[in-house]
Amino acid sequence: MASPLIFIDGDQGTTGLQIHERLCARTDIGLITLPHAHRKDPQRRAEAINDCDIAILCLPDAAAREAAASVVNPRVRVIDASSAHRTHADWVYGFPEMVKGQAARVASARRVSNPGCYPTGAVGLLRPLIDAGLIPRDYPISINAVSGYSGRGRAGVEEHEGPNASGRSQHRVYGLELTHKHTTEIEAHSGLTFRPMFVPSYGSYRQGIVLTVPIETRLLALGVDGATLHRCLSAHYAGQEHVQVMPMEAPGVVNQLDPQALNGTSLMQLSVFSHKGNGQVLLAAVLDNLGKGASGAAIQNLELMLTR
User: Fold this and answer.
1) 9, 137, 169, 171: which has the highest count of C-beta atoms within 10 A?
2) Mean pLDDT across the chain, nearest whole number?
3) Strand-strand pairing, 280-287 and 268-275
């Protein structure tokens, strides 16, 4: 039986490069690549995407929509790493640990949309707690997050690492118009009934995310506290390879968060910090925006799809 053929459309971007690096040495699959001169040729790209078994789109949103629309071969399955299809009803959301049965849905899907890096952390924290009724669906959620500059793609890497890089330390809060595209994705897949407040920022380091969600226990049901939320998350992610819930108490207790701690991995670590006397809880996620937040998620979804 021939090895499945994988085509990475956009393998020169930050996500595409990492996916290619992770797959190029494998002998159980075949990789289709286009010569540099043909990478922007619509006909050559359409031929490649229709000759593969699974296409991974690492493109801007508009180009991803065009690439997906160019698929006419019914055998071809697609993983889209852009944000073009993340809330589309015909695409399966590629967060296998999100709810029970999601991994099976990804495995059998024809079209899978990779989650965004920030939504991976936010949805990972919120969806189990909202589904369990511990956080109300109408809770006024605020999300603060900082990512490495590679979250901006090649432009961010060039600005900090290119020949004209200033070398000065930078930390920039952005999305101040409060219309960041990840907010809609978070609302849709976390189960919230109102748009959350999302405040993203870039740090002066290459990759890695810390995302936090503050919770006031006075706005929760009587008796729900940090320990309750932690137990729910621990039960939901028990046995998962790529999502770990960190302990609240020693040994192994987390007392600080390093956004670069999981760089180079496909892991996400979730933590719950609590002060019962103050009635305050802080939910936190740490992940590599190029790992579990991008290329690692694509590979995880690919592995699931290769089982069917």
Assistant:
1) 9
2) 93
3) antiparallel
pLDDT tops 60 at residue 6:
yes
SS3 36: helix
Interatomic CA distance for residues 144 and 104, integer angstroms? 31
Q: How many CB atoms lie within 10 A of CB 197?
A: 12
Tell me what the mean pLDDT of segment 212-237 comes to.
Answer: 98
Q: Which of 24, 52, 58, 117 is catalytic?
A: 117
Q: What pLDDT, in 10s, does the model give residues 118-167?
A: 999 999 999 999 999 999 999 999 999 999 998 665 555 556 655 665 65
The reply to whether 58 belongs to the active site is: no
CB–CB of 254/246 below 8 Å?
A: yes
Among residues 201, 211, 199, 198, the alpha carbon closest in space to that of 148 is found at: 201
- Expressed in percent and rounded to 5, the helix, strand and coil fractions of the chain are 35, 20, 45
pLDDT value for 308: 82
**C-alpha–C-alpha distance, residues 290 and 294, integer Å:** 5
* Kind of pairing between the strands at 54-57 and 92-93: unpaired
Omega cis (within 30) before 259: no
Handedness of CA 73, 76, 79, 85 (dihedral sign): positive
Residues 240, 243, 248, 251, CA torsion sign: positive
Complete domains list, the chain, with CATH: 5-114+294-306 (3.40.50.720), 117-289 (3.30.360.10)
Tell me 99's DSSP state: S
- What is the C-alpha R_g of the chain? 20
pLDDT tens-place string over residues 59-79: 999 999 999 999 999 999 999
Q: Give the whole-angstrom CA distance, residue 222 versus residue 214.
A: 18
Q: Read off the pLDDT of each residue in 52-59 and give the average, rounded to a whole number.
A: 97
